[in-house]
Each structure stands twice: as structure tokens, then as C-alpha cells.
Amino acid sequence: MAGGCFGLCRLLQRKRKNRRGPGAGPAQEVEEEVQHFQPLQQDPGRDRPEEQDRARGRLRRAVQRLLKFVGVRRRTATTAPPELTAQPDTSAAELEAEADVSTAPRDCADSGDMEPMDCAASGDMALTDGTATSDMAPTDDGTETTDMAATNCAANCDMAPLDGTDTSETAPVNGRATSDTAQIEGTETSDMAPMDGTATCDTVLADTETSSDRAPTDVGAKADAATEGITNTDCMPMHSVTDAPSLDVLEQKTVSSANEVPASVSPIHQWLTCQESAEVRPPVAIRRLAHVHPGHVVMTLLHCAPACDRAAAILWRTIASSATTAYKVLPMLLGVMEDWPLHSVSTSDGDHVDVFALAATLALWLMVQEPQCQDALLVHAPRLLVALLCQVSMSTEQMPEEVSTFWRGCQEQHGLPTHPNSFVVQTIQALLWRLQWDQELVSVERKRGWDALLSADTHHYAVGLLAREMRRVLVPSYGPLARHLLGLLSREGPRWELPALAFLVEVLDYLDVSTCHDSVLQILARHLQSQCPERRRLALRGLLVLSVDPSMAKGICSLSEHLLELLCDGDGELVTMTLSLFRNVLQDGENSDGFSSTTSRLAEALRPVFDNDNSHVQLLSIRLFREVMDLLAEEGTEPWEMQVRQSLVPLFFRWHDENQCVAQAAWEALLWATSFLQRKDLEQLLKTEQPFRFCDCLMEKDMSQRGEHLHQALPYLQSPQEPLREAAVRFMGVAGWHMREQQQDLWPILKALTAMSDDDCPSVSNMRAALMATYSRAMRTPPAPLRRPMSLQQPRNSPGTTSQRSCSSS
């Protein structure tokens, strides 16, 4: 019906022109055409101009009331329509028969009584895409208003007005009447709809709605605003064309090879950069590209937007919204993250670029925020965790100027922490939260692990803590992770060695050493010789874990020379691990053959360790000494007799140690030594718990060793333990008694006693004063028999059976 009315309007206009213009030819044609519409031409009001004017006024008022009722809204166009091309002529019947459902704007073709209009409605004036496109013209305030009032019924100026009065001319709109020949900026357009989309009174008011991809802005336009003056078309270009192709064109573009990836990714990023709307539709084409060419897409994005601007952030999140695509992209990001500070790569188009490792971390941080990538993150979680921990360490210790400059730009754009190590820690926390590992997250926080990660002195401790806390959720992945860490540590040059080594130590017990026996020993041996005490400690911990495996014993024995050097280290923890490592290897007799060349040196190196300040080190060294001597005794007693004799005095003083476990271990070692030396007298005195009779017998029989025994006993006069100082003073008395024949031998004793500071223990002070007086007189007078010193008597608090039973040996 609307199409017929529209054609009728055109016919009536042509008739008026025929009446006014010269010549009867056109008028005659009009009369012939109008004969088909005789009922409408018999309007009695045609020859009454005054009634016609009143009818036009009533029509205008009726239209205004109708507009007020339906509430016309102004709309703001987000994009300008692309340039349209003319289409072949199409009849009105064809346009009515073929309903166009496409969303792309098009030109309407000339047909019959219809003049060509830019995107005007055809047939029944139903817009092909359900949106009002040709009716948008910019207003003075920069917005676009609809010149076509949306109504439910078609209203035409040449149709009968709502009150039943017919009019043959167009009604003026807002005081501006549109004549039969519209004058647009000096250009005469006869009966043609304006090309800029402005509707004349011949335009049917149709029911329109906004497009689904355009966000309408309701500015509360009133009915009067719908009929305000039409904007001058000179202020608006005939066609608005953007420089960049539309998103549909970009997404339909096919990529046949990897070399074409940068040419496809960069335009998508540029298109997103030009979009100012916050609700821009994410380009799904990036997911298809990343699924097929993950490496090239990652490197292109990191190269063109390293700081992850708004457009790049949309792309990374779009990639993460697909689990399968994220699964392929994450390994590529890991490759960049593991190269600090720059990752050098050649793109598919031949460019050699350097990408910041932190840029990949920033991209990961954006991807973690998408819940769809949880499964992909779970698969790569172990490697991601290691890479992030290593980045924390490197960003704490090494921050090149170029990295600092890059990070300042990222910080300003995203509001990130000032220092990148804090951001990386936040990324680790976000990763654990996304994987729903809340228990581990809280446990590390409770133990202050996150704060420890940010300190260079405690970072390695925090890495080990995190690795231990992750055992519950990552145990199945620790085997492959250990092999991955070995690969990182095997590379040339420093590769985050301290954090990687700290994590490796915690997962070594999950490693199948049969497949990597040589590589793991080579890595640990290199760090065992490092000048860094933390690396030496971690290497020892790793060897200690491997020492329980019998297949590794022979390889560890090859490192015995380096291990012996560590026994002299002042770090008690380091010495403790070294002693434990030796004991683990020696427990199996088959594995001890590798130590045959160093056992004698080991026994010699163990004697000074008896006097270590750490009681646990003392205990381990005494027990290891006994085990080594048992091993040597199998080869014969004569080669090792001197080693055993030199251990008697240190073991004798440790028998008086305040730590009952150490005292018990020393007593057992002494008992074994006397049996080894076949000294039944000394063995009997030990069994009857007569320590100073044991000392007297030792000095009496070993005349050749008296000087050495005395030399070994002198340091115990300065021992921090009172029982050891008292035992040393008594030993001086016994030694002086047996060395009285040679006065020059008394000088070291007298000098050592004089050097002793005043002792808080009265018994020790009294014995020291008595011995000094006795030896001073002996030095001033000729040699004479000395009284047997009271120090030979049994002390009140001597080691006894009670103390021996209080601590059992292992």
C-alpha cells in the first residue's frame, strides 16, 4: 500500500508541473496515468486553495501530535557509511519481491514512479536492514538526528490528512516548505530525494529501529525537535569513507602462509586503536590466526604493541577466551619470558626484532584474567611458575636502563607497581588464584613467602618454599619440570641459576636420574665450586637428595675432592650437609669403593671438625670418623694406626662434652679406637669409666707421643664449656707429672695456664693456681721428684654410665 501511495504522490506532482509549465505533451501523459487513480482525483478540495492551506496545517499538527506520541529519538552514528556505488535499475515489483536482509547499506535503484534515493526505503518503504541509515544528518551540536519520524502508519503529504481533508501539495516542515523542485545549495533536484539522506515530505514515515551494532544515545528529543530545520547539506560530505578497512573485511581476509601474518595482525590492531567506543566488538579473526600461527601472532603483537595498549589488551583477551588457542599461545610466551631481558627473534616477514621479556609477562597477566583459559594455564602452570619466579629474581638484581625505561611506560599506561618484581609477584598470585589454588596462596602468605621473594637475600629461600607448597597440586608435573630445569641450567651463560637451582633441588626426588645421570651431576658439580655460598649450599642439598639412590653413589664419589674442601668451611649448615653426604655414600659397602683414594684424607680432615662450634656437626663428624676407620680396618691396621692414635686426645675431651649425645658418640669411638690399637688397658679403663686414669695410662705408655698429646690438649683450656676446661687443667697436671724430667717441656704448660683468664668455676681456678705454683717452682729449682698432682684423682663430675645411657648412638 505504501508503495502505491508513494507512486501516486509522484504522479500528482508531475500533474501540477504540467499545469504550470508550457506544453501539453507532459500534461497529457499525466492525465493518462492518473486515469487509473480517478477516485483520488475527484477530491472536491482541489479547487479551494484556502481549504487546502487549512488542511495542510491540520496535517502538520496531526503529524506533530503523532511524533509526540511515538517519541522520536535522536541517534548518534558511531561510524560513517562507506561510499556506495550505483546499482542497476530494479523495478519496484522486484524490490518488493526480494526482501534484502543484509546489514550493509546500499543504494536504492530507480523504479517506476520512484526517484533514486540514497538508501531510501523501497516498495513499502521498509528499510532493508531494519535501521535508519539514510535519514541521518548532522545537527549543529555534532549529533545526528532522524529526519524520518518513526511511526506505525505511513504519512505522505499528498495523501489524505488524518482529519479526512486531502491536500495536493507538500506540507511545510518547521516553516520551511519543500516545493516541487527542491533547491539544495543552488542545485536543482526535480522530484528527487536528497542524496544526503534528508527526507522530503514525500518520504514515508516508517517504523525504524537502531542497528544491533550501533549504540543509540537517547538525548530525550521532543516532538518539536523532530521537525526543526534540516541541516545544510553543505556541512556534511556526500559520502564518509574511513581510511582503514572495516572489521568485516579484515575478518574475511584469508592467510595462506605464515609470512602473511604480520600483514593481517597489524591492521586489526590499527582498526581497534581507531575505535573509541568502550563496547567495541572483539575481532574473532585473531583467534583463528593465533590457532594456526601462534608463534607469528605472538611475536607480531609483542613487536607492534610491547606495552599492551588498549587495542592489544583486547586482542590478548580475545585469544585467551579460547582454551585451545591459549594452549598453543602460552608456550610461545614462555619462550620470550625465559630470555631476560630481551628475546631476539626473526619475524615471518624477515624483520629481526628484540622483544622485552616483561612484555610477554604483561600479556600473560592480561590472559590470566579470562576464565576460559584456565585449562590451558593448568597444563603450562609448572613452567609458567618457574619462569615468573626467575623473572622476580632477575628484575630484583638486574634492571638494565632499557628495561627501566620500558617499564615506566607500562606503569603509566596500566597503573602497575613501580618496580617490575612486584608486578611479577602479583602475576604469580593471579595465576594461582585463576587455577583455584587458594590453599597454597594463603600458606605462602602466612609464611611471609611473597615478601621474601622481593628480597635478593631471601629470594632463593622463598622459591624453595613455594616449590614445597606446590607439591600437593604439582606432583604429577614435577618429573617433566625437573628435566625442564636441567635444560635451563645447562645453557651457556647465567640463566637465573639461583632460583632455577633452588626449584630443582625441591623436585630432584621426582627425577628419573637414569635418563640424565651425567647432566645433573655436571650441573651440581659446577655450582659446588661456585664462590656464591648459596649456590654451594643448594648444590650440596641436591647431591644429598641424589645420594640415597645407589646408582648415583659412584658419581658422587668422583666429587670427593671438592667435598673435602667444604669440611673446612665456617658455615655449620654446609659442613653438616657434607658430612651427611659422605655417610649416605659409605653406608653401602659396594658404593664405598669410589672413596678408597680419599678415605685417609677424609679421616685426617675429620679430626678438626670434632671441635666445631655446632654440636650436630661434632656428632656427625665423630660417627663418620668411626665408619671411615671401620672401612680402612678391612685393609689392615698398620697403615692407619697413626690416624687412630692422633684421634685419642680429641675424642677424650669430647667425652666430657655437655651434649650427652656427643659425649656418648665420643666414648663409643674411643672404645673402638682402643680395640683397633689393641690397647686392652685403655679399653678396660673406658669400660670402668675412669677418664683420668685413662689419661695417665695414655701419657705413661705413649712416651713418643707425649708432646703431640700435650699440644692437642692445650686449646681446650680456652673452651667455652666448663667441663672441658676442667678436664684440660687436669690433663695439664698429668702431662706435667710425666714430663717433669725435662723442664723445657713444662714451659708450654705454664704459658698456657698463665694465658687462661680468671675462671668463674672455683674448682678450675683452684687447680689452675696450684699447677702454676708447682710448675713455677720446678722451673726455678733443679729437677726433683714432684708430687703426684691431685688432678689425677677422679673428678666429681666425670662421664659415667648414667650419661652414656642417656643418649643412644645411631
Automatic annotation (TrEMBL):
Residues 791-810 have a biased composition (Polar residues). The keyword Repeat applies. It comes from the Eukaryota. GO terms for cellular component: cytoplasm. Residues 16-59, 78-112, 780-810 are annotated as: Disordered. Residues 235-330 form the Maestro-like HEAT-repeats domain. InterPro entries: ARM-like (IPR011989), ARM-type_fold (IPR016024), HEAT_Maestro (IPR055406), Maestro-like_HEAT (IPR048465), Maestro_heat-like_prot (IPR045206). Residues 521-772 form the Maestro/Maestro-like HEAT-repeats domain. Keywords: Repeat. Residues 44-56 have a biased composition (Basic and acidic residues). PANTHER family: MAESTRO HEAT-LIKE REPEAT FAMILY MEMBER 3, MAESTRO-RELATED HEAT DOMAIN-CONTAINING. This is Maestro heat-like repeat-containing protein family member 6 isoform X8.
